[in-house]
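Let's practice the habit of predicting before peeking. Look at the sequence and jot down your guess about where helices and strands might fall. Then scroll down.
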Amino acid sequence: MKLKKLLKKFPIETILKIPGHVALKDVQIWFQDEARFGQRNTTTRIWAEKGTRPRVVQQQQFEYAYLFGAVCATRGEAEAIVAPLSNMEAMKEQLRLISQATPAGKHAVVIMDQASWHQSYLADEFENLTIIHIPPYSPELNPIEQVWSWLRQNEVANRCFENYDDIVETLCRAWNRRAWNRFCEDKSRVISLCFRDWLNLIS
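Done guessing? Here is the structure:
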């Protein structure tokens, strides 16, 4: 019931945050979040010859990096940076990428959680985007969580990382649209993972 009420309110709250001169048809919804990836990595099932018991090494070191990612659920576009820390500097750079990826005449509504570095005023220097926070403890309202799951299952699981640079290189390859079968390479996959019916502001 709580989720249904939140989804019902979403289009109204979104519309109220959009500048008055921007038509709803020109609004693009982005989902943003960050996730930590590192040497304490995910292990998953793997294909193996019948009768064998493959081994996967689980590292005990603590090197990691943060992947700041954002996806446009209607266009299938995606932007990301890799940073050593989660802070406002990285967040501002993420917003800059979203702003640059938003076509002229369009307005980006960036949906994110209420982490301390997700401050609304960070969007003030970008004329073509607005930040909307989801309620606390409501990760189900941010479909980019499924992106993290896809990356862990398909790109970074069952791996050992030599150091921080190795983690960064792996994350960049996993996200990069120019690499074969990577996350951004297939826009239909981005839309399939992240689009929701309640994103339709014109109904």
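How did you do? The chain is about 30% helix and 20% strand.
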